[in-house]
## 1
Amino acid sequence: MLTFIGLGLYDTQSITCEGRAALREADRAFAEFYTSELLGASVEELEAAHEVDIEVRDRAGVEQDPEPILAAAETEDVAFLTAGDTMISTTHADLRIRAETRGIETRVLHGVTAETAASGLTGLQNYRFGKAVTLPFPFVHGAGDVPPSVIESIEANQTRGLHTLVYLDIKVDSHPRRGAPDDHETYMTADHAAELLASEWDGDQLGVVVARAGSPEPVVAADRLSTLADREFGDPLHLLVVPGELHHVEADALQALADAPVGLVETED
């Protein structure tokens, strides 16, 4: 049995009761944290809280060499852990398909994900979001500050009146490259993202920052991208939303929940 378990957004308490029970009953537990991380808990804290040993796999160890996971799941109950929801954003459908093809039973125990948290914290309605995008660090793609595909997706959403959820890049074990950060782990901040996007559009474009969703004290802030670029939002993880047309309830929510300037929040007719 191979059980995919989403750990939720922040710390050892973010997992569902069902997920916690399955994790504690598993014979072995594997995890990946290159997609996202729990900033409120270390691997050691997760192990202590759930009374398990966790083997952390890097990207290659999941996508290119999944054999240790699959081989274990053929004879044991194996848990595969990710932050958030294990099948949202970067999915692990390929690993699940490989398991099913080999006759290994699988199941998915979902966790709270940034996708739903962004809607819930900002007051922007979930069904009014279009295609999500990921904003990479400029040193990754080497084609200007913002890849054309990101701009095209945001503009396509706006043409349809839809909001865009912008995931911000995470680079683990960044290799020394020209213009690359020196950090072992690097998280793009919302002010950096706002600065990059403001340079592509008029800086008066509305943006909404969500910082540390799932933590006891998340931050939500709405303002012009150029203004958000000059603010600091504290520790990661950060998200950015570029709204499309606003329903009047959404406009009220951004004013009440994110301190949006009244004149900046225009509603649809």
Note: The chain has two domains: 2-109, 114-264.
## 2
Amino acid sequence: MKTGLVIYTSSIEKLAIFYAHVFDLQMIESDHSYALLVGGDFELVLLETEVSKKGLNVFEARENTALKPTFFVDVPFELISERIKEKGGVVFPPKNWTFGGRQVCDAHDCEGNIFQLRVGIRGG
């Protein structure tokens, strides 16, 4: 099954650069109102609307949301953390437990959208 995620943004360009850099996603298409990034069986759509431009504060993590996207990465925690920080995101300290055979931590992108990282090769 192919999966995807839609994120509303106040700056398509800034958020597209963030996700492309951190997760090696490729920009497939874009215009002034959206961007489509793809990696494997995952699609990320970024939408810029007047409401999202007015309602987003880029300096504040938005923890009060009903969803938390999860990204599974098979690279060292230090590398993925550095990628996130290079593009204006924040990584919280890794939790002291694993889930599904992976180290777990939370982070947020350069606009404050919280996401979870599950780092490491499952079963190894």
Note: Residues 60-124 form a domain with the 2,3-Dihydroxybiphenyl 1,2-Dioxygenase; domain 1 fold (CATH 3.10.180.10).
## 3
Amino acid sequence: MQIYHTLTPVEAPRGSAVALGYFDGVHCGHRLVLGSAVRCAARQGLAPAAFTFELPGNQTLKGGRILSARQKHRRIAGLGVEQYMEPPFEAFRTLSPEAFVQQILVDCFHAQAVFCGDNFTFGARAAGNVERLQALCGGAGIEVHIVPMAQYGAQAVSSTRIRAALEEGRLDDANAMLGAPYAIDWPVTHGKGIGGSRLGTPTVNQNYPPDALQPCTGVYLTRMWLQDRWWPAATGIGRRPTVDDSAKAAVTCETYVPDFHGDLYGQAPVLEFHRYLCPIRKYPTLADLAALIRRAAADSKAYFAAQTVK
């Protein structure tokens, strides 16, 4: 996937089919919009494309980011998008709806068709809606396709609902709305070494940056992508009260990969969350904590052995 960070003409010699949206989370609704553009491009011999944007300081529209930029790009590329434009919001925030259509859809994408959700807005101060988009694009010879919002539990899928599900430990709901397992790929950092030196369960530390959404604290059944394959694992997100019960203890994200041995510092492996197991609590002894970690890892191995997850 070719990624553009400025407003510039994309590689689309026969024109493009463009998905429009912010795509935070790349959830089921986003996948419908992106997939519709990709399928249209295949039918009509166009370049499959997407237009989104990046907010200043890694901000998000309505809360902490669900996916890192790398994860977002990986998932959108996996849907078949080839031309992807993600300029800073400041680069086009003052454009009128008319200028947005001309400068971005016509000049940059040579768009023949565009796809968006029924709540899409554009132009300075969100002055344009889907009806305005249809009118302006009609004058430029661009087809406009409004994609109905995806539904889950009789309600529209949204990033706000996904954030709430993750924060409340409803991982099954979050993953269903995302259309893929929730995952992180934060860089591996050094911890205090307690897992390896005192518990016999060395962990991979991938602590959340301040701008990221942090899921509910607890123990999760996870898997990590290492050496070109998935490894069953157990992940704890929380303050580790058994080893540090101070009120100022930092929240950590630590993963035990029982069958893997190697140095991952400085790397950013993908960690997928598949099942919420139990809350974090203080154990009487370190031996009790170590036993929980090993049980969780064994549960993870059994879980993935019984799954057809690829």
Note: The first strand starts at residue 2 and ends at 4.
## 4
Amino acid sequence: MEQLVNQITALKEEITAWNGGDAETFRIKYLGTKGLVKTIMGEMKNVAAENKKEAGQLLNEFKLFTEAKFEDLKAAAHDSPPATHDAIDLTLPGDNLPLGSRHPISLVKNRIISIFQRLGFAVAEGPEIEDDFHNFSALNLPENHPARDMQDTFYISQNPDWLLRTHTSSVQVREMQKGKLPIRIICPGRVYRNETISARAHCFFHQVEGLYIAENVSFADLKQTLYFFVQEMFGATVKVRFRPSYFPFTEPSAEMDISCLICGGSGCNVCKHTGWVEILGCGMVHPNVLDNCGIDSNKYTGFAFGMGIERITMLKYQIKDLRLFSENDLRFLKQFTSAV
């Protein structure tokens, strides 16, 4: 019994002078499953029978004493100010969060849509996986037509009649088939062609195509529409020219160039020292296309145009490598934060 009393007295002195760490360290040492309180409680079996009552009271009082010390340590830790390196000054401004931005392709696409919406064009969209009819046949490109070789196509191996669309003209076909005239739409979206990836070409890119069908639509309407677009997108000082071309779905057809924005028309590598850069193809909708879509070509006429968004973006921001758009390099993309 005397030995037990001496042990408890020594432990009380140790606990009273405790400076061995935080409250959790104290709990583990004294009140844990292998702590000293549980260990000394085990001494009860060595106490003589006539002293067990007194020993029990003594041990219980020691346990309560230890638990009280633990509670005091917890309260002190809660009330004490945090250490200097963990201090939080609530008067300081918050941390700066990195500012995101839209992708340059999205910026230019939205700008193009905004310009044509001011002219009354609505936005139309369609599937990226198309059938042969909507992508080729309806556009005056029947099977074995040589113009199909102009577009290297990704076909779906399980069903050769299905493919990844090569242009958003398929959306125009779907809108014409609805038979709701007049039609004035633009069709933005991603398209796919089996091309070797380089600074000027990629296996996928983005297009915006336009279509206007009504009575008495002329080539003059097409030219004035595109003049307005170029001035709104690139400024009033940019020069424009039209060159005769061939597209199976328009007749007559033309390609539209603008004066090079990088060299100002004096000639550089981008414009191949011509001073001009092609930005889109256009023309009057071929009568066969109207007939294929159930529209009376004797009553209605229309014009169509199509442009690559990447080409417009490269000219607007003077970007010389097409691959930058899909590499997700933040050093490149963060340059457009202020352009939102």
Note: The chain has eleven helices and nine strands.
